[in-house]
Specification:
It is built from five helices and eight strands, in the order H-H-H-H-H-E-E-E-E-E-E-E-E. By secondary structure, the protein is α+β, with helices and mostly antiparallel strands. Strands 1, 2, 3, 4, 5, 6, 7 and 8 form an eight-stranded antiparallel sheet that branches. Helix 1 packs across helix 5 and helix 2 crosses helix 4.
């Protein structure tokens, strides 16, 4: 693991430990609520591995928050301006999915996230990851096949999709990969 990935993994791991401790949960309780093994949770909390998006979504959902909120709490400091150099960037080690958190920490319920999904990559997220949010996806470049439950949407650059009721979703970048903006509203 390179130094940047190691720093991010350590920061995320510390945040998960803090969230668990604030709730007075044991590792076993978080494992039961998230469906992630105690051994994996311990490894993540100690910053010994870079967790996948799928694992982080399950952990965040156990805390009653979105993946965005979990990463934002791990990486961001207060202030109304978040410069590009300070925007947290996270890479899924399994898929190459790269996620840049654009929004500064605030009480505003809106968050903006820019995602790059490499050509051919596929990311599956369970309905639980959408339970606390409403979101729209705006495709900046490339082609994105987005499966929402049983419905498949094929997005071209400039297309914007508002997601419906929470359902299992799959993001699949086609030949050219995909760069897209996710706008989400909590609550």
């Amino acid at each position: 693991m390179d130094d940047i990935a190691n720093d991010i993994s350590t920061t995320i791991g510390r945040r998960i430990h803090t969230e668990r401790t604030m709730r007075d949960w044991s590792l076993a309780e978080l494992a039961e609520r998230s469906g992630v093994s105690k051994a994996m949770l311990s490894t993540i909390e100690r910053g010994m591995t870079s967790p996948t998006a799928a694992l982080l979504v399950r952990i965040a959902a156990a805390f009653g928050m979105t993946l965005s909120t979990l990463i934002a709490r791990a990486e961001l400091q207060g202030g109304g301006l978040l410069r590009e150099a300070d925007q947290p960037v996270w890479r899924d080690p399994d898929t190459g999915y790269v996620r840049r958190h654009l929004s500064p920490v605030s009480d505003m319920p809106l968050e903006l996230i820019k995602v790059h999904l490499p050509a051919g990559a596929r990311v599956s997220l369970p309905a639980a990851s959408y339970a606390f949010i409403k979101q729209q996806i705006w495709l900046i470049s490339g082609q994105l096949e987005f499966t929402e439950g049983d419905v498949v949407h094929r997005l071209e650059p400039g297309d914007c999709l508002a997601l419906g009721a929470p359902s299992d979703c799959i993001f699949h970048a086609l030949e050219a990969g995909a760069d897209y903006l996710v706008a989400l509203v909590r609550g």
